[in-house]
Amino acid sequence: MPRLVMKFGGTSVANLDRIRRVAKRVGVEVAKGYDVIVVVSAMSGKTNELVGWVGETGAFYDAREYDAVVSSGENVTAGLLALTLQENGIDARSWQGWQVPVQTNSSHSSARIAAIPSDNLDAKFAGGMRVAVVAGFQGISPEGRITTLGRGGSDTTAVAFAAAFDAERCDIYTDVDGVYTTDPRITSKARKLDRIAFEEMLELASLGAKVLQTRSVELAMRYKVKLRVLSSFEEMSDDAGTLVCDEEDIMESNVVAGVAFSRDEAKMTLVSVADRPGVSAAIFGPLAEAGVNVDMIVQNIAEDGRTDMTFSLPVDQVARAEKAVRDAMARAEINFHDLIADEGVSKVSVVGIGMRSHAGVAARMFKALSAEGINIKVITTSEIKISVLIDRKYMELAVQALHDAFELEKV
Ligand code: ADP
Ligand code: ASP
Ligand code: MG
């Protein structure tokens, strides 16, 4: 029988009533003749609560136990949905990550899926099971410990199953009816896109649009999974939502497809660093070893053999970053006069494959920001995106101004 993967996020399984509605949707696809793999998240708010409890046990907790605790929300929803489907007369069974097994590497709290052997589920489907309800976000390491895939990781579970089981489609059901030109919570002018190219979705996700986890888009692109984002609260239809697809399958698109943002960023400057070959490696090597995700980097003009080095990072990694560079200074690997951390910045980005062939996007972006009196602190560009770092208090205003400037409300 053809197979389908359906993924339901936290708000879609927030209580038993919603789980019953999910079961109905799954029942519709089963009645069409699909064998269905349903991937579920924890009830909304649950994972945050679990993360909070782990944090309260101490600052330097064991990452293996973090995963043991934080993965548990998905076990509850998987079991409850299987029970509800059984109530509806559907042959359904729940599967935790280790039972499938979803094999991952050992990077606890941000593990990557290595393989999903299909034998276990295949045998059950052959024996009459119609729905496998899989707990998203979790797997098992080579050492036999439970792992999790990073926040939002159930999307990645879903796409990985679609690839491993050769599913006809991977439907990501969520609380919005598709991918928008920007987060609809920031501006009511945000417009739903019928289609978006993999490359654009990949950039939007990695620049902060949390509607899909970045890794899920990467996997869909690599394994050619037909990926759709749609609402679990609206009527079902075959052309609902947004299809994430190849660039060639999109007839016409705007130069800029969307605006993404990442609210909680920080900017760190090492003042007056000796400017000599190898200095960047001496700074960013220890930061990488400390697990700091450095994003934008700017080196100022050197004067008298010294220079300022500025970089951005997630705000919750500032303490770790500061320790890493101060330790490097103590080891006499680097030398700087001062360290300034600005914990009040956000990153706002415009993304579009049309930028490859259109000049002037950057100028238009900077003009729109300056018209609102927003100062740009750092800029980075790539072939299909431009990102700026600005004061956090202007983040919403910047997103709205850019949405207007690129006329994203229009097709
Ligand atoms: P789920 O719990 O279903 O995984 P998430 O909260 O992870 O849902 O993702 C859905 C949310 O992503 C939406 O409610 C929306 O606020 C946010 N979002 C951010 N950027 C976008 C965008 N460009 N298009 C649609 N939603 C977006
Ligand atoms: N429950 C996990 C989280 O909140 C995984 C997910 O929802 O995708 O991050
Ligand atoms: Mg999500």
The CATH class of the largest domain, by name, is Alpha Beta
- How large is the share of residues in beta strands? 25-35%
Main sheet summary: 8 strands, mixed
Shape: globular
Mean pLDDT: 95
What would you call the structural class?
alpha/beta
* Proportion of helical residues: 25-40%
- What ligands does this structure carry? adenosine-5'-diphosphate, aspartic acid, magnesium ion
Low-confidence stretches: none
How many domains, in number, for the residues?
2
CATH topology of the largest domain: Carbamate kinase
Explain what this protein looks like in three dimensions:
The protein is α/β, with parallel strands linked by helices. It has 2 domains: 3-175, Carbamate kinase (3-Layer(aba) Sandwich); 259-405, VC0802-like, CATH 3.30.2130.10. It has helices at 16-31, 46-56, 63-70, 72-87, 119-126, 154-164, 198-206, 214-223, 279-289, 318-330, 361-371, 395-405, and strands spanning 3-8, 35-40, 92-95, 103-104, 113-115, 131-135, 138-140, 146-148, 169-174, 195-197, 227-231, 242-245, 258-274, 297-299, 306-314, 338-351, 378-382, 385-391. Strands 3-6-2-1-9-11-12-10 form an 8-stranded mixed sheet, sandwiched between helices. The protein has a 6-stranded antiparallel sheet with strand order 14-15-13-16-18-17. Strand 7 and strand 8 form a beta hairpin. The longest helix has 16 residues, at 16-31. The chain is globular and about 75 Å long. The model has no long low-confidence stretch (mean pLDDT 95). Bound molecules: adenosine-5'-diphosphate, aspartic acid and magnesium ion.
